Amino acid sequence: MKRSLFRPRCAVLPLIAALFVNLAGTTAAQEAPPDPNAPAATAGRGPRAGRGERGNSVREIAERAAAAGPELTGGPVQPTWESLRANYVTPSWLSDGKFGIFLHWGLYAVPAHGSEWYVQHMYSSYQQWHTEHFGPLDKFGYKDFIPLFKAEKFDPDAWITLFKQAGARYVIPVAEHHDGFAMWDSALTKWDAKDMGPHRDLIGDLAAAARRQGLHFGVSNHRVEHYSFIPIPATPSDLTDPAYQDFYWTMNHSDALYQKFLEDWVARNLELIDKYHPEALYFDNGINSRSLDPVKLKVTAYFYNRAKERGQEVTMFSKGAGESAAYLTGAVHDLERGRMPDISPELWQEDTSIAHNSWGYNDDPLQYRNAGELIRELVDCVSKNGNYLLNLAPRADGTIPEAQQLRLQEIGEWLGLNGEAIYGTRAWTVFGEGPTPQGAPNGTRGLTDGMLKVYTARDIRFTTKGDTLYAILFGWPPGDDPALVTSLASARGVQGKVQKVEMLGVAKPLNFTQDEKGLSVQMPSPPIKPCDHAYVLRITGLKLQP
Q1: What is the spatial distance between Cα 106 and Cα 353, in angstroms, rounded to a whole number?
Q2: pTM, full prediction
Q3: Number of DSSP helices (H) and strands (E) in the chain, helices first
Q4: Element at 274 (helix H, strand E)
Q5: In whole angstroms, how far apart are CA 104 and each of 97, 107, 459?
Q6: CA torsion 166→167→169→170, rounded to 10°?
Q7: pLDDT tens, 6-53?
């Protein structure tokens, strides 16, 4: 018997909780997920044939779902945008921490093919590949990967040690992806990692390890997409078997069933909040619709009120922009594989993956990004008042591939030397300068072109800490050429006078001059680089604070 989630004293306010990871990791070539807000297809129409229909609007269904179940009340945050706006404060640990680790780990690491969307594609475009490797869909469905997902080598303390050595200050694992398998010990479903597969509370173990070692801990929940994520193929499959409908949710769609699903979505979020006390909640794009505001606001109010009781500083991450944003207020704006083109007045975050072609592990193989690109992206985000959330893709056995560990090691070495120009810093009046173009923004996703270009010593990003200015060079000047910081030209009107210029990792101060062209800095001689990828000048003497 699963124990009840709700304690008698609990009272919940209609909330917002959801914004997790954007299907976390599909390539542009992959199809978009089915719209969870669209009416269900009628029998005989395409991949959703036989699912039934919804009659009422999603908003009406969401309102009923939010009102159902125990009344959860208490605390200052009410389930309204106005109350959220009045009570939200961005956590200092997030503003100062700058760098976090994201984790896409689940059943999809067992087939290790394509991407973390395997549950959708195995019943459609991957059907032949799946049949060749595992058998026909009615004999070996997605559920049959569960016994193969053993996580037998999972060492949460070793993971957290690795993340800390990489310089990360927070970690956010995906607690449930679009496939509907819960990675924690849930009282609400048997389809979880404690009752099946690893027979272990994977989220709980990682949360405990993170707190033992001083990392901030959050969770990502992508379940809201699950209701309409899996297509029913024309060939026989396990998706139409009534025995598995509490896992797949693929049949007999109706207003009542969708309401039940949304009630369950709320309950799972509250369970994660109460069991693991996360300091951040992340939801994917499926929660963005205004129609789902009643259930979102219920979760969000509960999250912030329980955090206040515990004395926690917490946040949520919101995808989308303007009216299409999951949260109109009370959350940090998140860009999937995208960056702001300029300084944002509010803290934001890029989430991106260590691989170009997937967020989850696969053997196709993964197309890894190099450490230099990742470090430059981190620096670019911080220079624009942003954070950087880097996704890893562990194997099904619980090991993190060596190629991913090596990139983390390089990032950690760079931050170990240059971290003072990252942690606890704030943006300057300009984010940077240089001849290499950033690329054109891709709609609301911002800059999506990555940072694999060949950068020069004229490509510079700035951060500040008090009256100290950090100029981070993306290249080393050729020969005996000096580094030139044109933003510090005498005519630019920067207050104060440069008194000293140092390079982090170099013992002696550097010689410099300042004139109408800028700050000209003579590089160390002999030209021994203190690190790879980017080089930090610490500039003091200016008056940067108002």
Answers
A1: 16
A2: 0.91
A3: 12, 17
A4: helix 255-276
A5: 21, 10, 33
A6: -20
A7: 332 233 223 223 322 332 333 333 333 333 333 333 222 223 333 444
